[in-house]
Amino acid sequence: MNNVIAIILGGGAGARLYPLTRLRAKPAVPLAGNYRLIDIPVSNCINSDIHRIFILTQFNSASLNSHIARTYRFSRFTNGFVEVLAADITPERPDWFQGTADAVRQVFHHLEDYKSDTVLVLSGDHLYRMDYRKFIDRHFQTGADATISVTAANEADASGFGLLKIDRSGRVVEFREKPTGERLQEMRIDTTSLGLSPQEAEKRPFLASMGIYVFKKDKLRNLLLETQPHAVDFGKEVIPSALSTHNVQAYLFDGYWEDIGTIGAFYRTNIAMTLPLPPFNFFDAETPMYTRPRFLPGSKLLDCHIQSSIITEGCIINGATVTDSIIGIRSRVEHGSRLEGVLMMGADYYQTIDEMEQDLENGQPRIGVGRNCLIRRAIIDKNARIGAGVRILNEAQLQHHDGPGYFVRDGIVIVPKNGLIEDGAVI
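RE: above sequence
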């Protein structure tokens, strides 16, 4: 893997994850109480012996820069690095990143500074565990100019992805971006040719692009800088146009993979981790997911009832009931409160005694969840203050709404980072 450079795409505004992206870059959104989205592709790279990694971003990148700088420090005796590349506004390139392909084009000159012949392009908002070495081996074995990682999809999900068809050798012969109706049905294939059982092939007759690519570096340079210098997106423009002129192959990934780019998908994926047998396993010692070491104390639970939940480090929970929830680092939950299906992201710091007393004098809730609250199906972002007696239930079943101090997206109530919900509020 010494000749491979990885590029993780995280430059979008993250509008589908708003308000979680209101104050942070999409790759910096907290995940599973202890991680951030960016930790998934970076950890997959490290576990695959790929240690030269660029992360592309352009919106609210301060928290992402901080997380990367504090987390991924390779030995000075290796050539490994994890580096954030923000969009550069120059006389030659006066625009922000316009899309996935344009983002790679704009930073391609940085790749020329490193000895490499292969470029791995990854997305920053997917949850999965993959050994990229197998992916890249397939790329080399077929002599491909580009290889797309694909997953078999059912009909209900297929229209949300770029779909492709392959010939007997695995070469991609057709690519359609999010087809529907008759155009969708035309993309059916026999996925037993890729190793699926007849039963699975019947359930999942479509090949969906995962937005993960391997390119020969010189071919990628040719596509982005010469033959398609104005193309802005890999899936919509670069890949479909390359099929007739380049050897584009498919690689089937048949493990767990989830696109968590929307609030609904993000919430469901997180809460699914509280199941007895979650679809994604963070408890894998052989291929761990890495994140920032914080050196926090163990959580303190006093007279609590905890069921099917994840409690991370440094929390203080007093006399509360927590069910089907994730409680993030440094969280405080006070006596009599009940959390059901709640993703609580925690806090960036502990308040001092003086700060908490000052909040009391000012009649302001301190960071965390106050006494006697009932919160159901909600996301509580970092450093949020939930007063005593608050009820967050969304009984009106709103799907999209902006309220005082909160948002509703996909039916999920979100209290944003540094948000404040006053005592006794009902949502």
